[in-house]
Amino acid sequence: MIERDITTSILQAARSYPAITVTGPRQSGKTTLCRALFPHHPYANLEFPDVRQLAIEDPRRFLGQFPDGAVLDEIQRAPDLTSYLQPMIDDNRRPGQWVLTGSQNFSLLHSISQSLAGRTAIIHLLPLDYQEIQRFESHPTSLDEVLLSGGYPGALDADTTPAQWLSDYVLTYVERDARMISNIGDLLAFQRFMSLCAGRTGQLLNYSNLAVDAGVSQPTAKAWFSILEASYIVFRLPPWFGNIRKRLVKMPKLHFYDSGLACWLLGIRSAEQLSVHPLRGAIFESWVVAEVLKHRYNQRERSGLYFYRDKNGVEADLLIEDAGVMTIVEAKAGQTITTDILSPARRISRALGDRSPGTPRIVYAGGEAQERSLARMVPWNQIPQGVFQ
Q1: How many whole angstroms separate alpha carbon 32 and alpha carbon 43?
Q2: Confidence class of residue 246 from pLDDT cuts 50, 70 and 90?
Q3: Which residues touch 184 (CB under 8 Å, ≥6 apart)?
Q4: Which of 250, 283, 316 is the last residue of a domain?
Q5: Where does the pLDDT of residue 353 fall: very low under 50, low under 70, confident under 90, or very high at 90 and above?
Q6: To the nearest whole number, what is the mean pLDDT of the chain?
Q7: Peptide bond into 360 cis (omega under 30)
Q8: What is the tally of structural domains in the chain?
Q9: Same domain membership, residue 142 and residue 116
Q10: C-alpha to C-alpha distances, 270 to 70, 161, 235, nearest whole angstrom
Q11: 193 band by pLDDT with thresholds 50, 70 and 90
Q12: Residue 362 CA: distances (Å) to CA of 191, 219, 259, 331, 373
């Protein structure tokens, strides 16, 4: 197992809270990491029918097997279990007893907020960032290979190709996980909807247009998008409003957590095909935003990410807010940056005024870090240090 950047945050939380909840997409490495960090904890996987049946039908007896705590995997499969766990924690608040994992965002967090608020730290483990990918003995090195492979550990560590692994992942997700969240009747239509979302990564989320293209009603499009959000396939990046007296776009942007999954859904099967694909720039933008998001989550920082766009089309792909100070980040998939590309970031910096006192960051496909008068040029393989330092 490679070292995960979130390890320090999990161990720190385990010294302060009686329970730790690790949530994230399937196959992001939650089970492997938790069992490695807590090797002396008993382990129970609620995916196993007999284990799940006991947890649902006799939760007190199930939890009574673990008087000193345990790692409980896929806790959302027995959602009422946390209600029985609450009094046990209240009776014994020794830190680090219980480690819960789950891969359904909304249902799990609702259960946790109802029963374990203030008793558990919530950790989000997303697919690998590029720093972690480089720890594999054999790993992609070019930008297009990185975008194509994505960050799921199984896609990088499997005997099959990333494309084959992602194909199996989508099939399993559509036929099993998505149905578990909601009773979807037409699985082919839902997978087509996923592909249409991939075609809109890095773009404004317009439910009406998405529904028309998918051939479903707008309420269905919203419900299906919520399923993708709940299972950590996509996320919405909110627009930034502030108090600027400008007409700003109010729609969120759609982004995929994993570029490899987006590429697979778009039918991109090789780095050569990706290099000339019309959506390469949008895929790169989503990858940059996701890399920053992963870094924030690894530091247990979940908020403070936005994008900026006014009605005149002046846009910044990402705004990072820390203590009221905004850092402007632009993603450019080319290897050459000209002065006219830098000017929008400077215009936004002037509009933000004192909120953005620093230099805008331009993350680009080149390999050389540069400090220019208008912006800092950050090579794609130098996130997060080039963005946050």
Answers
A1: 11
A2: low
A3: 178, 190, 224, 227
A4: 283
A5: confident
A6: 90
A7: no
A8: 3
A9: no
A10: 43, 11, 25
A11: very high
A12: 34, 37, 19, 6, 12
Higher pLDDT residue, 160 or 164? 164
Question: 148 and 241 share a domain?
Answer: yes
Please check whether residues 74 and 143 belong to one and the same domain: no
Q: For residue 260, what pLDDT is reported?
A: 97
Least confident range of 39-53, 63-77, 200-214, 367-381? 367-381
Q: Are residues 48 and 25 in the same domain?
A: yes
Q: Are residues 100 and 138 in the same domain?
A: no
> Which percentage of the chain shows pLDDT scores above 90?
68
The reported pLDDT for the residue numbered 309 is: 85
Q: What is the pLDDT of residues 248-307, one digit of tens each?
A: 678 899 999 999 999 999 999 999 999 999 999 999 999 999 999 999 999 998 779 999
Label residue 353 exposed, middle or buried (CB < 10 Å: 0-12, 13-18, 19+). exposed
Per-residue confidence band for 244, with pLDDT thresholds at 50, 70 and 90: low
Spatial separation of the C-alpha atoms in residues 19 and 21, rounded to whole Å? 7
Residue 329 · residue 319 · CB < 8 Å? yes
C-alpha pair distances (Å), 6 with each of 84, 177, 345: 28, 25, 31
Q: Kindly report the CA angle at 257 between 251 and 262, in degrees rounded to 5?
A: 95
Q: Within a 10 A sphere around the Cβ of 348, how many other Cβ atoms? A: 23
Q: CA-CA distance, 104 to 125, in Å (whole number)?
A: 12
Same domain as 167, residue 182: yes
Point out the least confidently predicted range of 103-107, 146-150, 375-379.
103-107
pLDDT at 150 over 90: yes
Runs of H (alpha helix) within the chain: 7-14, 30-37, 49-57, 59-64, 81-91, 105-115, 130-133, 143-149, 153-157, 162-172, 178-181, 187-198, 207-214, 218-230, 259-265, 271-275, 280-298, 339-352, 385-388
Residues spanned by the domain of 340: 305-388
Contact 132, 5 (CB under 8 A): yes
Q: CA triplet 61, 67, 69: central angle to 5 degrees?
A: 105
**Per this entry, what is the length of the chain?**
389
CATH code where residue 245 lies: 1.10.10.10
Instruction: Please check whether residue 298 lies inside any domain of the structure.
Output: no
Please give the Cα distance from 161 to 150 (Å, whole number). Answer: 12
